[in-house]
Structures are given as C-alpha cells and as structure tokens.
Design brief:
Chain lengths: 471, 471
C-alpha cells in the first residue's frame, strides 16, 4: 500500500490545484451579511466536491446561520470511524489595499498559492477531500469509515455549530475527530497539536455628548469619550504585559515543569521571530517565553479601535463616541463566561465620569487540551514520519477552534489536530497563502493516516485509550 | 441715522437669505484636497459679492494654498480704517450619516438656517458684506474706511495667512481688526470676545509588526500597537482631568481673581449645559469651573483614534499599526512649539517596547487676549446695546483663530471679536446651523458699529487707547 495513491496524486496534481483555485475564488466571508449568497455557493461547491469522489449521503444542512456540509462513507466494517471537521468560511479581507493580488483571484507564485482561505481553512479541508478521492479512486475503498462535517461559521465563532452537534450527535458519532486547521511547527517540521486556547471577547462602546463637539469651545468642560476609552483599556494591562483584570489568572491551570521543558527543547528562535515580524523586540507577560505566552498563557488583545476624525489632516472635534473590540485567548481551566463577567466588572469600576459604556459580546470558545500519548495521536506521528521523513513534534497552539471543545464533550472523542499551515502564511491578514510543499506532503500524510488508524488494534483502544479530552 | 439701513435690511431680507443659501451650497472644505475647485469657486463668489455692493479693488489673491479675497473702501477721509477678517472655508462634514439634511443643501427650518458653514463662518462674513451693502445703498457712503480680508484656510490652521499678512502688511494697515467668528454668551445675550485660546497638535502613528497578525497565534508574544497607543495616550491625563505632560502648565499666566469673579458673575448654568449635551455630568480639570476650563485653562483632546478592525462583528487580528490625532488648546503665555516639544518628549518616555512611534505635526496658533476697556471694544458694546436692547457681556472663548495673534502682532492693531453664533449651533459637527434672529440683529449691530467707531474722538485714541494686544 502507498504507491498507488502517491502516483494518483502526482498524476492529478494540476487538476487538483485548478479545483482549489475555483474553491478559493468564492468570497465566502461569514462575518459580512452581504456575502450570504457566496456562503451558499461555497457550501454547494463543497458538497458537490464530496459527491464527485464517492462520499455518500451528502447534504447541505441548514442551521440558524450558514449551512453545514455533511457527508459519509461507512463501508469499512469493523474499522474505526473518523469524523473530519473543517470550515469553508473565511475571514474578511480588509485592509484590501495591503493585498498584492486580489484576495479572491488565487495565484500560484514561487510554489505558494495566494488567496483568502488558502491556508485557513479551504486549502486544508480541500486536501482532506482529495486524499479520500485518491484512496477511493485507486483502492475503490477506504481503510476506515469517515464522516465529514464542514461548517460555514468558524470565523464568526461557530455560532450555530454547538446546537448542530448537540442535535445531530447520534449522526456524528465517531471514534476520533480529525482537524487540519492548525500550523506546523516550522517549514519542514510537521507538528501534531494537542491543545488550543479558548476565546471570548466584546465590543466596548463609550458614549459621551449627544453629538460631536467643537474641541475649542467645549474642550476641557466635557469628558472626551476617546480619553475615557483609552483610560479604560489602558487599565486592563500593566507595563509588564500582565492583564490587570481582577481574577483574570485565577483559574489558569498549572503547567507542569516537564511540559515547559518539552517547550524549551523545541529551541524556538525568538530572535528570528522578531526579525520576521520586523519588530525591535518581542513583548509579553514577564516570566514566560514567547511560546509559553502564546500556548499556555491567556491574553487580552485589542483587535480594533475607532472614534472621532480619521480623515486626512486635522479636524478639531471632541467626538461623541468611541469604540474598541477586544478578545481574550483563554487556557484551561478558564471559563469564557466568567472572564467576560470579570471584564465587565472591571469596565464598570474604571469608567470615568461623564460617559456611559455599553458592551456587546462576541461568541465564546472553551480552551482545550488532549493527552499527548493517546494512540490516535501517536498514529498521526507515524503518518507524518512516513510522508515528511522527519519526526513530528507535539505542540499546543495559541489559536482557538471553539467547536473542538464542543465536539469532544458532546461526542466524547479524542481529537487529532494535523495542521499543514505555516505560521507566516498571513492567515486573517492580507496576502494569505499556503505552501504547495505542504499541499503535496500533507496529502500523503492524510492518506497514510487512514491506514495507520485502521491498524490500531481495536476501536476500544481508540475510545478508551485514555481520558480523551479536557476542556 | 439708523432708520435707513433698518428699512433696507427688512426690504431685502429674502434676497439676502437666497444669496446666503447660494454661498453655503458651495462645499468649500479646505482640509480635503478633492475640494480644491470648490475653494476657488467660493473665493470667486465672495469677490463677486464684494464687487456688487461697491467695494473697490477686489482681488482673489493667490497664496501657497487656497486664495485670499481682498477688497477695500477708503473714501471716509479722516475716519478710522477697520480691517474685517473672516473665512470662506468650512470644516469637513463627516460623519455624513448624522446630518438630518445634506450639509451643502441649505434649508431654513424654525427660523434657523442649516448648512455646513452657516455659523462658522460663511454666514457671519456674509453679514459683514450685507451690512456694508445696506450702508452704501442707503447713504452712498460709509462712516469709516474698511478693508476686507477673507481667507480660505482658517479650518486648516491658516497655513499661508501668516506669510500673506507679513508680505501685505502695508496694504492691510488699519486702526482696528474686526472679526465675527465667535459665539454670543447665550441666546439673546450678545458678547464681545476679548481672548482666544491657541492651538497645536499632532498625529501619533504607532507601528508594530510588519503586517496584521492572527491574535491567537501571536497574541501574547508581540506588542500590540493599539495597546501601546492607549497606554501612551492614557499617560497624558490623570483621572482628575489634569494633563500630565511634564511642564505642560509651566507657562500658564495667572488669572486675576477679579477676572474669575467676572466669570462667576455670568452665572453660567453647568447643569443646563450637561442636559443640553446629554451627559450625566460635566468633567474637567479640578478646581476650575466649566467656563474657566474652556476659557483660561489649556487642554489636550484626542480628536480621533483608529487602528485594527472596525467592521461589523469580530476579526481576531493583532493590528500592525494604530493612530491618533490630538490637539491642545493653549492659553497665554504657553508657546505652541514648546508644548509640542514637551508632548514629543512625553511620547518618547512612554513608548513601550516592541513598537516605534512617529508624529506628524498640525499647524499652530498662539493664544491671544485684548484689554476689555479698549475704546474699540466699548464702541462694540454700545452697538450691541442699540441693536439687541440689552447689555453685551465681555467674554473669552475656548476656540482658536490662530491668525488673530499674527494680525495683532504684525499690524499692531486692537482686535474686536463680535460674534453672532451660538454655542449650540453644531459648528464643526453634523447639522451646523445659524439662528436668523442673530442674522437680523447682527446686521443692525454691524451697521451701528461703523457709526460708533466713526464717533471715537480720534484715530490716536483707537491705536493708543491701551497696550492693545498680548499674544
């Protein structure tokens, strides 16, 4: 086994890339209501791609928001069932003027494909579809049973997926959840991710006088909402990068010294990171390395701020209102809802006189971690070794896939995160791209993984290999 | 004297208002380069309006930026010469969606005319033109000599007017400078303004990583430019509303107790102000009344702030850059350039690690104050009493007309600020308007003022009535 799908993938590479370009050209931005029709189009495209390769019972299933694409192939009797999760929605593209090529006109340059969604996540869910295509085309069968659940709301917090998973939990039942939506450790260094941060956030709206005022005639007499906002925001973090929201760190789980030692053994190059990002130095919570600050420590980041005059030149206005968007990345055992409450209490306590503050909440996701030594994770290690010719490393990620915690809890499955992205591929930013080297090797890894998974001694070993999740 | 121009103004009121609507419909926004042609159009309109009423030697004089309109009438032999200053440029109109009627389609509603520039300053400079028209039409002459200097860059800091005044100082020589670009004390309570605040400001640009980053993958490891910006801005003011820039208050001139007592005697209603602005309470530097905080105390106000994601919903980005615009209002004897230097030193000292900061400076203006008991100011008091039937009060203003200090210094003239605006007329904000009651009474006041000025015993009394200015 192995030679057939390798040959098949080589022979069909050009066609696959053309299909991927088609997929990436659909502007499926879930956050913007004007793109609703594109979302349907991307869902239909995904469903059709599944039907074409022989996946059965493919459906575009409605939710309260954007639809979920579901399909299955369940003919590997006695073999484990894997649930593959991914998403066909993408992030907004602004600031558009910073893109070198249009975000929805995919181009391949220097063995990388550039487009919004190339790495996160259309490119990677497309690889899953093509790996299954290769096996089905060459073998006429699959070594394991598979179910696919591809949603359209990941970039807006998987608004309706919790409910979808709950309602369809019998339908989605599986032995393992496989997700390719994380990054490799570095170029040429594959990684299996066993932990993700959680997420919560809000928009803060500060309202002052009923209209914009002349800053000369009123300046000094009236609270300026932008001053109030920067005062509130500034009070949330000290100069050492520590979050000063009362109780913010109370529920943070102790990170064992052996795990920190494993992080150190990765010899992460902070100097190189700061060079790549073109900053004079990295910055963050004191007492922790950059890896630790992104993997096992929580954060509070302002994602956007706006108020008053933003045009060319100067306008001497005392603005009527000011706004900021902020999100926290959470680690076990922080509770998103509890952190939101703490932030709101902090805002109440730090709102200066003369303005009023309202907040609107964003969707939340729990933090998540899986034991490193679980058989489904070790099987992934073997698949990577085969395809890449090197040992994979076991990492955590600072990102969040809120639905992972839901899947793990509702379906009671272990989770394997086999991502093929690289951290400098500008996901969520202008000029997102994906390295075709990892498109090719990733396809081989995925094909191989299904054989490795089929080889695990029994389904029981998968399901009860360990206490399989912790969210 | 008196009856003739009153009758004339009544008879021609409808035509005057139609002309004013024409004038206000020209979108002469000096700050926006796209409006260059409208600026020329507004200058030509002004010049033609002067020619039509009999003003002589009318010229549209080029500068390095928008042109100055000049005209004169110098046939009142042996009488004082007044220089009338105003501006035909207006502020930008955004946020446009907050206007109830389009800013450049003037409408009269409930005896108020709504349009950008209705109060600041087209409406008021137009009144000067129409007052001269009434006198010339009825008497065939004027009681004093007049020169008019109407510029197009007041709202962007009178960029080229300092040089213009310096170059043309013989041409502009006069006995008194008259400006109608300030506000009355209240509806029905005319005021003569004897002091203005100065102005300086800058845009602060904070640059972090070379591009926007994923706030999950990088959050915690890298300085967030928005956090850095709010930290810098927050450090500039304490919770009591005091500016904490080192040395900010060092040059502030002592305000005598008798002047503060005069302010108190105005019985300014702070409660009413906060109700009008729809804020729970006023806010500002402790130990001073709202009037004092706007008239005789300096301020630092953030006029605008922006960075990161501002769209609908959430985008979990760690922004690459963040920006703020701030301006200070200054009082005697603060120096705009010195304050700018102090702010820059403060920024240098408060810039956190991991970002770089640049600043771009806005134009400056010196603060200014004229003695209350100067004959040209007392003459204005008599004119107001005649036209409004009440005593005018003597006030200072928190606003800035930077060129006033220049005029006073270069031409060595006393300054009379006879404004007809009201402080709730939304100048610099959506729904700017002007009360027609003050259009009518203001025209009478201006006509009367020229007779009062003509009656002062000698030109020497005007020029040497007192040490005439202090900037």
């Amino acid at each position: 086994m192995g030679e057939h799908y390798e040959q098949y993938l080589r022979n069909n590479r050009s066609r696959h890339l053309e299909e991927l370009k088609q997929y990436l050209s659909i502007p499926s931005i879930s956050a913007l209501s004007g793109h609703k029709q594109n979302m349907v189009q991307a869902a239909e495209w995904t469903a059709e791609a599944l039907r074409r390769i022989g996946i059965e019972h493919v459906q575009v299933m409605p939710t309260g928001g954007h639809p979920v694409v579901y399909g299955e192939w369940l003919k590997a009797e006695g073999k484990p069932t894997a649930l593959i999760y991914g998403h066909y929605d993408v992030q907004p593209v602004d600031p558009l003027h910073l893109w070198d090529t249009p975000p929805f006109e995919p181009v391949i340059l220097e063995d990388k494909i550039y487009a919004r969604g190339a790495s996160d996540n259309k490119g990677q869910i497309f690889m899953h579809i093509k790996a299954l295509e290769a096996l089905l085309a060459e073998d006429g069968t699959l070594p394991v049973n598979v179910k696919l659940c591809i949603e359209g709301e990941e970039e807006i917090g998987s608004v309706h997926l919790d409910e979808f998973v709950e309602v369809n939990k019998e339908h989605l039942a599986a032995d393992v959840l496989v997700i390719s939506d994380s990054v490799m450790y570095a170029k040429g260094k594959p990684a299996i991710c066993y932990g993700l941060r959680g997420l919560c956030g809000m928009q803060i709206n500060v309202k002052g006088p009923s209209g914009d005022l002349h800053s000369g005639l009123y300046g000094g007499a009236v609270q300026n909402p932008v001053h109030a906002l920067v005062q509130i925001l500034s009070s949330m973090r000290n100069e050492q990068g520590e979050i000063t929201i009362g109780g913010f760190y109370d529920q943070v789980r102790y990170v064992p010294e052996e795990e920190r030692e494993r992080f150190r053994s990765l010899q992460f190059n902070e100097e190189q990171m700061s060079q790549e990002l073109q900053v004079a130095e990295l910055f963050g919570e004191r007492g922790y390395s950059a890896l630790e600050r992104t993997w096992v420590r929580p954060t509070l980041e302002i994602n956007g701020i706006y108020g008053g005059f933003q045009g060319e030149g100067v306008k001497t206005v005392l603005p009527s209102e000011a706004h900021a968007k902020l999100t926290c990345r959470l680690v076990p055992d922080q509770s998103p809802n509890e952190i939101i409450e703490r932030i709101q209490r902090h805002i109440d306590r730090h709102t200066p006189p003369g303005v009023s503050v309202t907040t609107t909440l964003f969707d939340t996701g729990k933090p998540f971690v899986t034991p490193v030594d679980h058989p489904v994770i070790q099987a992934a290690g073997r698949a990577y070794r085969e395809a890449y010719g090197v040992e994979a490393v076991y990492i955590r990620s600072g990102g969040s896939i809120p639905v992972v915690a839901t899947f793990a809890a509702v379906l009671n499955v272990p989770v394997v995160m086999m991502g093929f992205g690289l951290s400098d591929e500008n996901i969520h930013a202008p000029n997102e791209h994906f390295h075709l080297e990892n498109f090719d090797k990733g396809l081989l890894t995925l094909c191989r993984y299904w054989y490795e998974l089929a080889g695990i001694r029994s389904n029981d070993a998968i399901r009860n290999g360990d206490n399989n999740c912790s969210s």
